[in-house]
Amino acid sequence: MIDSDSVVVLAAGLSRRFGDKKLLQDVCGMPLFSLTLRNVRTGPWQTFIVVSEASGLADRDTGVPKVINRDPSQGMSSSIRCAVEALSSSARIVFVNGDQPLVRAEHIERLIARCTPGRICATRVNGETVTPVCFPKEFYGELRALRGDRGAKQILDSHPEDVVFIDADADSLTDVDTPEDLAMLKRKLGCL
């Protein structure tokens, strides 16, 4: 039996731009990644996992099944490959970055609804393609073949005719890449 939907939070990044383990940074009394998990886990999907590196998040009890990326230095593609291997029976996989604490389950539901066989559904903010992105099973082979830190954008670029977009508000997809981004998020949430 094939699962309908799976959601993956990618949380194995090395936080090079941030300079520290950004997903463990405190935001309003909880780690940054906990905000992302809280918002994303409320949806109706059958499977929800976190791909994390062997230390840090992997040591935390999040109540969410984890897949360990043993080689996060290989970039985001290694986390994507880990997820696809773990969820190969799923009909669709949505990838969310762990540093997107304001993403909503409703947005992911819209992506899944538009992600049909042979059709990728991606998020677009101000004309730029960003995560979350939903891939149907037909693209798992290409996801497994990814290398480097560019993630799955190269698949979207290779198949523009197979991509549909959902436009989103930049505020709802804020990501935290730098300490300045973290401070801005805290101000937005009223905890700075």
Automatic annotation (TrEMBL):
Domain MobA-like NTP transferase, residue spans: 7-161
InterPro entries, per the entry: MobA-like_NTP_Trfase, Nucleotide-diphossugar_trans
One example GO MF annotation: nucleotidyltransferase activity
One Pfam family here: NTP_transf_3
SUPFAM superfamilies (alphabetical): Nucleotide-diphospho-sugar transferases
Superkingdom of the organism of origin: Archaea
Protein name from the UniProt record: MobA-like NTP transferase domain-containing protein
